[in-house]
Amino acid sequence: MNRMGRDMATGWIAAGLVILACGSARADIITQSVTETPSGSNSNVTNSKVLGVFSVTPTFNEFDPSLGTLISATLTWNATGSLTVTGNNEGQAILSYDTSNDTESWNIYGGSTVLDFSISGTDHLSPASVTGTGTFNAGAFAETYQLQEGFFPDTFTTGATKGTFTLTYDYAPPGVNPDPSPQTPGSTVPEVSSVSYLFTTVLLLGLALASRARRSAQG
């Protein structure tokens, strides 16, 4: 093989390695979503203890290690709800999940009032803690009621309450090197425009090397 041929071959091999390096950072995504619509009521509150209005536990499947290497596990949630309290009393109620909570209080002298709740958040879970073939949870989606002062008996009942809990696994399939520093789920997957720019750059690199090889052969 002459010098020009060797230079051209070297250029295209280098271009191919760049493309392979880009492909090695590819990651896939698995998403699980759980929706809860709990309710609860009590028509005969006669003490100041903390009472449970409801408690449900969203459950997720662990990441199956046979699918590849888990890069990140991100749990997000968004929940809203309402609670109607009745009587001559003062107190507080708390809606909570994982790292977030919303505390609402009331002080009424007969009749009723409606408490509105809203929570949302994100929790970046340890990949090792959610890898396996079973299930896991990040705790209960719950609401509590506490009468702090007033006359008995009192009542409470939930209005429309809904929580959506989403778990996203960002992982590298078998044979693909995981990105050592992912930013967000799926961020290691190049967009179509990025791949197009890369291909154009590699093509120009190859043509430049070929042109250089031809000039060297002519000289």
Protein architecture, described:
With 219 residues, the chain is of the alpha+beta class. The chain folds into 2 domains: 1-25 and 191-219; 27-189. It is built from 2 helices and 10 strands. It has helices spanning 3-23, 192-218; strands at 28-36, 41-45, 50-56, 60-61, 69-97, 100-125, 135-136, 141-150, 154-158, 162-172. The strands form 2 sheets. Strands 1, 2, 3, 5, 6, 8, 9 and 10 form an 8-stranded antiparallel β-sheet that branches. The longest helix has 27 residues, at 192-218. The two termini are 18 Å apart.
Low-confidence stretches: 191-195
Biggest sheet architecture: 8 strands, antiparallel
What is the count of structural domains?
A: 2
Radius of gyration over all CA atoms, rounded: 29 Å
Topology:
Layout: H1 3-23, E1 28-36, E2 41-45, E3 50-56, E4 60-61, E5 69-97, E6 100-125, E7 135-136, E8 141-150, E9 154-158, E10 162-172, H2 192-218
Antiparallel strand pairs: 1-10, 2-9, 3-8, 4-7, 5-6, 5-8, 5-9, 5-10
Key descriptive features of the protein:
22% helix; alpha+beta; single chain; 219 residues; 2 domains
Concise overview:
By secondary structure, the protein is an alpha+beta fold. It has two helices and ten strands, in the order αββββββββββα. Strands 1, 2, 3, 5, 6, 8, 9 and 10 form an eight-stranded antiparallel β-sheet that branches. A two-stranded antiparallel ribbon has the order 4-7.
